[in-house]
Each structure stands twice: as structure tokens, then as C-alpha cells.
């Protein structure tokens, strides 16, 4: 039996733009199709480019132009199917550089500028940045202002106020402000940034597993026991290469991880609970970040550089280079675990009760914010027996009062019937 031919995969058609440029010059990259112009009724030209957005997924760029009437149009369509999960992005802009964030907006996504109290419903797909997105909205609002002034004078000043606020945002005089992209189909995206580790950029996904995803697997570690009175901070110095990297580490889901020398900060809940080694934990952090910033398969020659400006790409390469050096034991660094529930642990390399000189432990009082996030501020742990008894007594008294009123009503009813 003859060997089966290799199967064609989506990556054969949807390549990064950098790969297309570096490929065979004779290969036709852009497909051109003659199509009807909806403006004048004559034939125009539609160009299709199948490409892959690094650290995102495959899309189709479409551009239409008509030489007869000059009409032109462009849009973005997702090449894949509806994703198993919807996505919600919220970006907080604090500097002019944030306007350059790339935005992939599908035709099912809703965009909202929170401080403007302005929401753009689902419509045409776009590949743009935050500045282009806001500029398009403001220009569309300004386009009909003159007619609106005569036809709807009561609406005109409200729209003018929104336009003025939007212009102030574009000029950089209204920082900070927020923009959200909500896509139930999961085909929209906002480019992350190195500074997003401190919580500036958030991505929310539902956690339910779709029935069709039969190969989905996940693992997590849940800690138990009573809630301690204080939180715990563990500082471990990694200076002995492979020996220290092989230490077992238990990181609870409430624990924050920080490596000052590596410019790395992982917020609580990001990785969930993990029981692994220090090397394994850092490797997972690196792989998760790289899959978001660069292409997940790692096979592309462009390595995500097509959508990153050179300065940003250099920063990310430097960051991942330092992280790789730490994982390979080529540089010393420090890990700081801050756990408000004191449920994390790092394996010592000395026999107890002698303390490990490389590990420092410190107990601290939880902040009000940590108490609130853990749901401890409204939790009553003492004296609840008395409250329960008081509630039972009040319920009994109320029942007795109702029975007394019922008896009096029966007496009055019997007296009236006797008459």
C-alpha cells in the first residue's frame, strides 16, 4: 500500500506576513477577485490576504476598490470557527504609547470606551490600533453633526460633548481611561505589553469546558485547613543552579509570585495552585507568556515580530532571554512568594529544625484589600451561636404573636356568627 500523502494544514495557507515576504517571490500572496461594486453597480476588484496574526490566530484581510467610482472598503474576517469560549478584554491607557496597541475586532465584538460612556455595537471587522479605533468613532460622530444640529437640536450638544472628550483623549490630556472589547465568538484581541504584568491588561474567559473539547486536560492544587491569622511571605535566594532549581515548591492559588531580578510578577490566581519544582514553575510562566506574546507553535521565522514594533520586540526578547538564563541555572535570582493564606511552601535543603539559610519567612497582617478579596471581612467566626439563638427567639415570638392575632380574629368571627 502506498504511503499516504502529507495532509494540508491551515498553517500552509495562513502564514505570518513576515513569512510571506521572506518566501518565494514567484508565489502569489494576495488573491484578486473581480466582484460587483455595491456603490455604482459595476465591477470592482477584491483583494484577499490569508495571514496569521502572531500570538493570536488566522484571519482574512479583505480590501475592495472600484476604479469606476473610486469607492473603497476594507475589513477583517476571522478564518476559524466560533471559539469554544468568548473573550473580554479591558485595557487601561495611561500613556501615548498605549494608543499603538494593536486591536483585532471581529464582526461580533462590542467596543466600549467606559469614561466616554460610549458603546459601539457589533459591526464590520477591523484590524487597527486603539488610536485608529477611537479616531474612527469620533470622525463618524462628527460627520452628521451639522444635520443633527438642525434636525435634533436636543441631541446635538450631547454628541458635541462626547466628541470633545474623545479629542481630548486622542491628544493625551485625559489619561487614564479604559477601553473594553467583548466578543462572544472569541475572535477579538488586544495586544498585551510587558507592563501588563502589574494588572494593566486583563483578559477574562469563562471556565466551562465545551462538550466537543474531549482532549481538554487541566490540573490544579487546592489547599485546605483553617484560615491562619496572618499571611506569609517567603523569600528564597536561587544561587546554586540546578540544585536550587530542583527544589519542590507548592504555590497556592492565592499566592503572588515575584522575581525582581527578572522583572517578573505573577498576580494571585493567574496560574492557579501548583505543586512542582522551581524550574517547572518558571518554565510554565515562560511558556504561558510566550504563547500570548509570540506564536504558540514557535515555528515561524518571524517569531511574532510582524505585529511588534522593534523597541517592544527587543524588550520582550531581553525579558525572555533573562528568564531562559534563570531556568538554565546561568544566573542567580530571588523568588518572593506572598500568600495571604500562608498556604505556600518551598522545600528546604537542610534537615529540620535547622533553618535553611537561603529561605526567609515572614508573617504579616493582611491588608484590608486582601481581607475583602478573600471574603473575610464579612465572615463572622465568633459569637454566631448567640446570634442564632436570638434569631430563633425572635422567630418564636413572631409566631406566638401571629397565633394570638389569629385567636382574637376567631373570637370576633364567632361572635358575629352568633348574632
From TrEMBL:
Keywords: Metal-binding, Repeat, Zinc, Zinc-finger. PANTHER family: ZINC FINGER PROTEIN ZPR1 (PTHR10876). It comes from Colletotrichum fructicola (strain Nara gc5) (Anthracnose fungus). Pfam families: jr-ZPR1, Zn_ribbon_ZPR1. This is Zinc finger protein zpr1. GO terms for cellular component: nucleus. Belongs to the ZPR1 family. InterPro entries: Znf_ZPR1 (IPR004457), ZPR1 (IPR040141), ZPR1_A/B_dom (IPR042451), ZPR1_jr_dom (IPR056180), ZPR1_Znf1/2 (IPR042452). Residues 35-192, 207-348 form the Zinc finger ZPR1-type domain. The keyword Zinc applies. Residues 398-413 have a biased composition (Basic and acidic residues). Signal peptide: none annotated. Residues 387-419 are annotated as: Disordered. GO terms for molecular function: zinc ion binding.
